[in-house]
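Appendix B, record 7
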Amino acid sequence: MRAAVPHGGEVQVRTVVTPTAAPRRAGRPRHADIDQRALAAALELLAEVGFEGTTMQAVADRSGLHTSALYRRWPSRVQLIEDAVSPVLAVTSAPPTGDLVRDVRRFVRAFAASWCSPAARAAMPGLLAHYQTSGDARSAEEWLPISARPQFLDILRAAPPGSVDPTVERDDVFDVLLGAILARTLVPTVVERDRPLERTVELVLKLLRP
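C-alpha cells (predicted):
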C-alpha cells in the first residue's frame, strides 16, 4: 500500500510493500499463507540477488516452502516474479481535484515512486527481456488491475474544459510518460543524468495543452 504524506503543500507517496497476488491466469486455488511467504521471499531475493538469482529453489529456501508447492501455484519463476512485483508497481494517488497541473504533478511523482523500489528495479529488465525473447507476456487485461493508465485518464477527464487539447491522443501521452519513467529508472545513462522529475511533468503538460 502507499501512504500520501503532506509535505510542503504537495503529496509525497511512500510505498509500503504488502505482497499480494495480482489477478492472473487460472490455476490452483490459493492458500494465503503460502502465497504471502513465497511472494515476500521473492521480493527480498529480487532486492538482494537480482532477477537471475530469484529462482524457484531460492524462493523455496528463503520461504521455507517446498518447490512443489511453488510450482503448483506458479508454473514458472517468471509468473511468480510478476505476482511479487505487481503490487509494488501499482500507483495510488489522491483523486483528481480538477487542477490539471497539480494533479499531473502529483500523479507523475507517484508513478515514478512506484518504480523506485529495489525489487521493481531488479525485476523489470529481466521481465522485459523475457517478454521479448519468449513472446509470453501477460495480456493488457491481466495488467489492468495495477495499470496507472486509468488514473491518468481520470485526471484528464476531471480537467477544466479547454485545458486539454481535444485532438491529442491521451493514451499516446501516457505511453510517452511510461517510457520516460522506464528510462529514468532502468537506463543507466539516463539514471546517471539524474534530471529533475519536474521536467517530465512539464513535458507531459506541454503534450496535453492546446
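Remarks on this record: Residues 32-53 form the longest helix (22 residues). The beta strands are 2-7, 10-15.
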